[in-house]
């Protein structure tokens, strides 16, 4: 397809950046084209033809070698005709449209490449090349009548979790012999986030998140909602809390004592340091576990804080707090999480995270098999006091086991599908 350099670009893409929240499955404008002009690319065969033309013409004239001179003239004519194919062209508009729905590992995802001919002239068939994560995929486009538009599907690779960069789309104009061609980037780029696989959970909290108003804790208070016991009256107690019937029976004033309640707040801590997981398979299982827990908590309208430590300089940025206000934002952020060299281990950030989410009622620690029970206990000791702590240890292909060490519950998870059953088992520990 012959194209000019003044083509306009209309490209949209699915983006998910850590920062202010965006509505689920948002679509916004893509980045501007990587290159604004065209470049001429000469193939090895083209260089051979050009060299033969030069040598043949010069040598034939200098030495009177007729055969070589004829060969030089022929090669020069071939090079000239090939160059004529690069001239002219009718502008077209090329756009990228992201997959219409969320993209999950292993699911089919198709982006659309839109090619429009805004002029009245017919555009001859041509070739486009779509850049997919640095690899170019050819796409043949048929002839376009005036003011016509075609949409060509382009499959997005979803074999692994992460970010797939699509674009730019490059228009290729060249000669039939493949000696020379003109490449012009005609679109911007879009990032398609391949989200982790999740499993449906009956409830993150049967027994862990017990009521809508809040969670009873071990801290006793004189005024709250969860009744604990009666105690003798002391000077300064609120007279409204005197239990008059029991006081009349005992002959002394007795006041109600309550258990302090907390609003339900689920904290998910995902280990991202390379030494916290034996391999990538364990890490992917841990990411899917964190995603499943976070999504279920959001479905229950529970406050969620998800942390995935990063290899950056101190402060909140190092803690890697993900967006936990909406399902789509959380899954997009988890789709971008990686095992980064230099990322702090669980023991180095647990204390900081505890201060960031001091009111957490349930804490899930998602780690790999290299995290020992002693390390998990040390992490548990740094987390908010009074919170239930559940460590989910990813051990692919191993039988699921559960154990309890003080307030810490340790679940060895072999497959993601076992997570609902293992959470139920954790409640009974």
From TrEMBL:
Residues 1-10 have a biased composition (Polar residues). Keywords: Membrane, Transmembrane, Transmembrane helix. Residues 230-308 form the DUF58 domain. The keyword Membrane applies. Residues 11-34 have a biased composition (Low complexity). Residues 1-34 are annotated as: Disordered. It comes from the Bacteria. The chain crosses the membrane at residues 45-63, 69-87. This is DUF58 domain-containing protein. It comes from Herbiconiux moechotypicola.
